[in-house]
Amino acid sequence: MTLYVAREASKLGRKVSAEISIEIQLLLEKWKFLLAGLICQYLHGLAARGVHYLHRPGPVLQDLGFMILPELGQERGYISESLFTFIFLSFLLWTFHPFVYHSKRFYTVLLWCRVLAFLVASQILRVVTFYSTQLPGPNYHCREGSKLARLPRPDSIFEVLLLNFPRGVIYGCGDLIFSSHMIFTLVFVLTYQKYGSKRIIKLLAWLTAVAQSLLIIASRKHYTVDVVVAWYTVNLVVFFVDRKLPEMPDRSGGSASLLPISVKEKDGKSKEENHKLLNGNSGDSADWRPRTQMNGKHQENGNHVDSEATMNGT
Question: 3-state secondary structure string, the chain?
Fold first, then answer.
């Protein structure tokens, strides 16, 4: 038993080591894209912090979701954040599962390049939207009478640049349409929908996204319109951005290709293969050896034996 465990541990160690070497190679090639995506995450947080200075508290707007869903209350607002944390950590761990499991369908670095592209495109639209019109925040700390509803003028530029993390992120106001929590949730769910392998988990992921939407409204962190706009905007963004990005290699088929194939390269390769088929050429040079025909029989590579000569004893 001890020998078996040691052997399996050795196999796992070699697998993890090989996977790390491949991912490091990809990271050295794609680090600029990843860094740009992370910088955009900071800029998105900076924009959300900036709109808080413009926020003016007022009466909570009439909302259909607020009428239907009972209010969780300020003391139970953590339920929504707890579910979002679970979604985020679950997706993060799943993106690193190719380091351990044999059923690997993607490279982690390439997957995160795609995820960050989806997030950045959605967040740009979000920033443009919530800066266009500032609505009175429905969250408890954004209502009239709360000290956090309006931010005083900053004492220094560093107070703005540092985002007052994490308090400034948790207690932000004004960045409403559309929900940032739903951007992350839907991007993660759509990514697993395409690259995940378990149908039951895909179903649970969509149900979790619906539950997250309802909890956001019930906790009064966003208006219903913020959630509804996120649902169709993020889906459309992922659909169109995904079509423009290079195709990721599917590792489940044993593909030896390390880097993704672009759409142009894929189309060019398909045209070349179709051209060979139309000309009667399968592309396998081993099957195309010079052949001649003598006395109704094929001669291959010049090694034909004349049966009549054999019969005559010559």
Answer: CHHHHHHHHHHHHHHHHHHHHHHHHHHHHHHHHHHHHHHHHHHHHHHHHHHHHHCCCCCCCCCHHHHHCCCCCHHHCHHHHHHHHHHHHHHHHHHCHHHCCCCCCCCHHHHHHHHHHHHHHHHHHHHHHHHHCCCCCCCHHHCCCCCCCCCCCCCCHHHHHCCCCCHHHHCCCCCCCCCHHHHHHHHHHHHHHHHCCCHHHHHHHHHHHHHHHHHHHHCCCCCHHHHHHHHHHHHHHHHHHHHHCCECCCHHHCCCCCCCECHHHHHHHHHHHHHHHHCCCCCCHHHCCCEEEECCEEEECCCCCCHHHHHCCC
pLDDT tens for residues 70-114? 999 888 888 999 999 999 999 999 999 888 876 677 899 999 999
Give the tokens for residue 311: 């019969």
Q: Which of 119, 95, 117, 110 is nearest to 181 (CA)?
A: 119
Question: Which residues are part of the catalytic machinery?
Answer: 181, 222, 226
Residue 123 corresponds to which tokens in the numbers above? 């967040």
Residue 293's DSSP bridge partners are 298
Tens of pLDDT, residue by residue over 167-207, are: 666 788 999 999 999 999 999 999 999 998 899 999 999 99
Q: How far apart are CA 135 and CA 131, in angstroms?
A: 10
